[in-house]
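name: query_chain
kind: protein
chains: 1
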Amino acid sequence: MRSNLIRRVGGEVAVVVGHDDAALLPLLLTLTRRITARHDLDDVLAETFRCLRPLVTFGGGSIQLVDDEGWIQMAAADPAAPDHVMAHRVPLGGSVAGRVILTEAPIYLPDLESDDRPRSRRAVSTGVRSYFAVPLIADGQAIGILQVDSETPSAWTDAQRLIFVSVAPVVAAAIQNARAHARAASARIQARSADRKLAEARALATTIRACLEAGDAEALDRQLQRLEGLLGEVADVRRLRFPEPRLAVS
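structure:
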């Protein structure tokens, strides 16, 4: 099959318009390398749109993720969205995005002017005619969506929509990888904090022994209180856990 989809990804790989679909493979591999090379979540999301823009034409794009409380929230938008849009959260049952996540299936609305499904118009901005959203699936479940829109009706062919579907697992895996890096970095910080407090506790133990030997009850009481506080702080650090994701469906 012939394709007019591909031009260039990140200035690294160029494919002449008109090459057949086999040319997509090196482009997708390049995109995969560029996205998965990022270990910061914001970098992953930004790189996703930097790589997608030259591949397929679309007006606006966004990545929305399920937060720790099970609500959908905007994580990235291209072009950038206002702060109030980025902060807005919706339940899974209240949007087209939620339907994509719950069904783990893409939704294509080729012409919103003639689409009479409920909530379809709420999925997009004014003037948008076409809408396409694919689930981001990782660790056996949908963690969010990648969605694009266009002011042109029937904006994308089957082959063009297949590009978004093909990219989605890469983006989902990179998001989870970035989250894992963030958790590991946080765990290292917590471990260092716990180690410092344990070192302080050991030093206090030496001071407490000296107070015992000197028979200084007042000083002993102060040091024991400090030791109790330090051990409580260590216990708090060790109890820290990352919240389990939930789904807000209503």
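note: Confidence is low (pLDDT under 50) at residues 1-20, 242-250.
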